[in-house]
Amino acid sequence: MRTLVLSLLLLLAACATTPGGDIANNITHDHFSVSGRFTVNYQKPDGSDDSASGGFDWRQEGKRTQIDLRTPLGQTIAQITVGDNGAAQLQVPDRPVANAPSVELLTERQLGWRLPVRGLRDWLVRKSENGEPQQMTEDGWQIDYLGWSGTLPRRLNLRWLAASPKLEIKLVLDQWE
Length: 177
What we know:
Layout: H1 2-15, H2 21-26, E1 31-43, E2 49-61, E3 64-70, E4 76-82, E5 88-91, E6 98-100, H3 103-111, H4 117-124, E7 134-138, E8 141-149, E9 152-160, E10 167-176
Antiparallel strand pairs: 1-2, 1-10, 2-3, 3-4, 4-5, 5-6, 7-8, 8-9, 9-10
C-alpha cells in the first residue's frame, strides 16, 4: 500500500506543469491562467481559529477575473467573477448569488475578511530573474515568494499584517497558461 501511495504521489508531481521560457514570456498582468492549490488559516469573528484548503483556477482576461475554488477532491465550491467595471459576484452552489461593487467588499461581506484579489493578480505574475526567495510588503500584506519555476512564482505565502483578523494564505501554483 505504501508503495502505491508513493507511486501515486510521484506521478502527480510529474504531471505538474512548470512554465517554460515561452509560457513565461506570454504571461502578463492582464492575460494569464493559473491553476494551483491553497490553504487559508484565519480567525473567525468569534476569535477562534479555522482553516480551509483546496484548489483554484484563476483566469485573467484584461480587467475581467474569474476564480474557481474547489474542494481537495476537485468539486467546485465557489466562483468569484470580477467584471470590467470592478463589480464582483460570488456564486456558491445552492445559495443566492452575492454581488458587490468590488471583490474586496464582496469577500469581506461573505467571509469576514478581504481577499486581496487586485493585489494578488500583480503578485501572481511577478517575475524573478534569479529564482531566489523574496519578500515584499504591499497594501497591508506580507508576500513571501518561497519557490520559483523559471521566472514565475511557484509558491507564495501571504500574511495579513494587521493584528486582527489573523489571516494567512498559502498558494502553490501548479500550472500556468
